[in-house]
Fold these 3 entries.
Entry 1:
Amino acid sequence: MIIRVSEARVRPERFEAFREWILSAVRDWPDRYPGLVDHEVLVAPPDSLLYVSRWRGEQDLVAYAGEGWRDQPVVLPGEDEYLTAPLEVRHFTVAALD
């Protein structure tokens, strides 16, 4: 499993509008992307929002984000009007607690 975290730095005056816009945009993604195990939106008002998604594997991320999935965030049309900086994307795998 690969955990993908996209961080958005949001204009504080647009934060609530962006939160609602993102929630609406990603709501059906598990149906659209079969490799998406689950996802959530984490908020830290007034200016930070994380989109956290868990994927079965690399092939599923390529199908979602393209060959540049490791470095390139997925940017939705119109998203940049809410942001103060480009999206940042990071990936994690789960470390065993054994």
Entry 2:
Amino acid sequence: MSQRNINLYFHNMEIPGSLNKIIGQQKYPLLFASISGSHLYGFPSSDSDYDLRGVHILPLKEVLGLDTGMETLEKSQVYEFLEIDLVTHDIKKFFLMLLKKNGYVLEQVYSPLIIAATPEYEELKSIAHGCITRYHSHHYFGFAETQWKLFEKEHPHRLKPLLYIYRVLLTGIYLMQTGVVEANLIKLNEIFNLPYLPELIYQKQVGLEHSTLSDINIDFHRREYQILRNKLQEFYEVSQLPEVPTAKNALHDLLIRLRLKHSI
């Protein structure tokens, strides 16, 4: 499949209306909710579930009282024939995660696949730039290593971990170069132009979530994995990104305002 056709596949993707219904049924108000997982990364299969991630706002009485609300809410269900995995964190927990080298939560903030958002979400996107540091590279090193071990030990080898390896390494390299969070492998490959990726992406899109690879050159992909790891290390070492986050005070102010706003 050509790069152009893969791009069209991604850009024409419609967000099912049932996802909005799920979000509308949540117990607490949401700061925002976005789509993560394979749909965000650009290689969903026909049977891929929808990974919904968001930030909820506990009222003051459930933060200050003896009976406190849940910091993390998780729900997996089939709704209108869609398999949905929903996870939301309270604003305080999420903001603390943002202040750590956690690329996963940054990707949720900057996901273009937004299901719900408040005006303060745009403010959060601006503030979150001050959470990006050169040490986010460690998140992508660790994620890639975990996926490579998973990919290498499984027989037959699955396609999904292999795509995850390339996705996280390219995301990490691009972040170190530019300070921009880009989680979509199709868009990343428009920049890096790895010639073998379009076919791998296509196989995942037209196959099933747990598709396997019957004919795969492990040595080739091991070399590519090491090359990209080395590039991530190289760009980490020369990155002009800050050493520590600068957004703590702004996140603190936003947290207080949101808590008060939703406790009246």
Entry 3:
Amino acid sequence: MSVDVVTTIEIGRPRGLVAEYTMDPANATAWYENIESVVVQTAGPVGVGSQMAFEARFLGRSLAYTYTVTEFEPGRRLVMRTADGPFPMETVYRFEDTANGGTMMTLRNRGEPAGFSRFVSPLMVPAMRRANRQDLKKLKQILEAHP
């Protein structure tokens, strides 16, 4: 069973600020509940080809995986993919202006679970959707708390 979870939220801050904060791997542990650490493995600013090693906990399991940035449009879009680990996945961040000067952010996670993950994938979709909603709410709180 493939997994495809799309979550959106409106954040009352300018698109450039939201995108800059969200695309910075140094901020991931502040707003992603399940991310325990991120280590950038490539030099320079985030861009196509950048690699980041993540450690996370999800559904009671520890996960370690490395994302590679495959698409990068500053202020608008970031696509990261991983081929390693039990759940090869693509994560997409998309940012759009709202009429009131805020940002509509879309977070999309999709992939094809392998191994043990394949058997628990029916549980993964609702758990991912819940986690993504909570993470985006936390991101919104962080960004809107400091005007």
